[in-house]
Write a structure and sequence with these properties.
Blueprint: E1 2-12, E2 15-21, E3 24-27, E4 30-39, E5 42-51, E6 54-61, E7 66-73
Antiparallel strand pairs: 1-2, 1-7, 2-3, 4-5, 5-6, 6-7
Amino acid sequence: MVINESVSVGLVNNIPKYLVWKGRTYKIDKIGFHHTHLEGDTLHHTFSVVSGSVFLKIDLNTKNLCWRLEEILEGLSFGYGI
């Protein structure tokens, strides 16, 4: 499901470890991929992560340092092969 809402993300050594969305904390169990891309002159870092049976796609805008939850898929079964 496409979300595109602001979230708070906790980092350890510049690696996302948890995020908070709508009062719920999601502990990040696995980072599937990380890539960067430009939107105009703004660099973005996009991460696909897994929290239990939830897939989340989060994005860091390096110009304003704001995190956004772009997508969420709940109730999935992962073998961590992402």
